[in-house]
Amino acid sequence: MKYGDKVSTVDHLTELRKRLILSLVFFIVSFIVSLLWSADIYKFLTSNFNNKLIVLGPNDILWIYLTLAGLCAFTFSIPFICYQIWAFIKPALEEKEARALLAYIPAVFICFSVGLAFGFFLVTPAILNVLLSIGDDLFNTQLTAQNYLSFVINTTIPIAILFEFPVIVAFLTSLGILTPNFLTKNRRYAYFILIVIAVVITPADFISDIVMSIPLILIYEISIIISKYIYNKRGEK
User: Fold this and answer.
1) Strand residues in the chain grouped as ranges (E)
2) How far is CA 156 from CA 31, 115, 117, 143, 215, in A?
3) Which string of DSSP letters, residue by residue, matches 74-106?
4) Which stretches are transmembrane (predicted)?
């Protein structure tokens, strides 16, 4: 379908079905490929952890492989799924609007990937070291592979999602829905919400909350800068 084409309800449903099937097929293929590399992915994710991880049974091994494959498949599918969403709504957009929206797809994938990397390489080790050091003199800690990976996933995924905030701000600013003035005026409330989020997604200790809060606040400030740039650029046109 082309820009501005008028389509019936049946055409809409047919197009939606097509996009859903394509997205599902891409995810399944990505899942299968990731599953073949699950052992290597596991070695990479546990390479920075010095302690020996244990498994309690074959079900744990299966859970680990399927979870890692699903996470990788989801990450790789993000740009493809975003493109399918764009292709579905494209007929309702002007050509200029469609091209502008298409430009955000790489940014969504990049921000999510950067968020994953930031969470895995910086935030997760910092939080884990703090938690393990707390009971180092009292307990002989043995982590299962499932517990460790669950901890990594529960820490990195929320961070990766929060790293999408600049993209959302840029998109809403480009549409005229959001202004940098609004973000600046509500900075204190935003900080409070971000700190609450940091407390919720991290263990209940002060250091972990600080480690998580600082990057979230930086993301918000970067979003304000991006919003100002786009807002001023729109004003020049």
Assistant:
1) none
2) 19, 7, 8, 18, 13
3) HHHHHHHHHHHHHHHHGGGS-HHHHHHHHTHHH
4) 20-42, 62-89, 101-128, 148-177, 189-207, 213-231
What pLDDT is attached to residue 168? 93
Beta bridge partners, 144, equal: 54
Amino acid (1-letter code) at residue 99: R
Residue type, 10: V
| Triad 59, 62, 68: Cα angle to 5° | 135
Q: What confidence tier does 2 reach under pLDDT thresholds 50, 70, 90?
A: low
Q: How confident is the model at residue 126 (pLDDT cuts 50, 70, 90)?
A: confident
Query: Which string of DSSP letters, residue by residue, matches 32-67?
Result: HHHHHTHHHHHHHHTTT--SPPB-SSHHHHHHHHHH
Alpha carbon distance 198, 215 (integer Å): 10
Residue 178, by phi and psi: left (phi above 0), alpha (psi -120 to 50) or beta?
beta
8 Å CB contact between 180 and 231: yes
CB atoms within 10 A of CB 193: 13
The model's pLDDT over 159-185, given as tens digits with 9 standing for 90+, comes to 899 999 999 999 899 888 899 999 999
Write down the domain spans for the chain.
9-234
What's this model's pTM, rounded to 2 decimal places? 0.83
**In which element (H, E) is residue 226 found?**
helix 206-236
Residue 201, judged by CB atoms within 10 A of its CB (0-12, 13-18, 19+), counts as buried
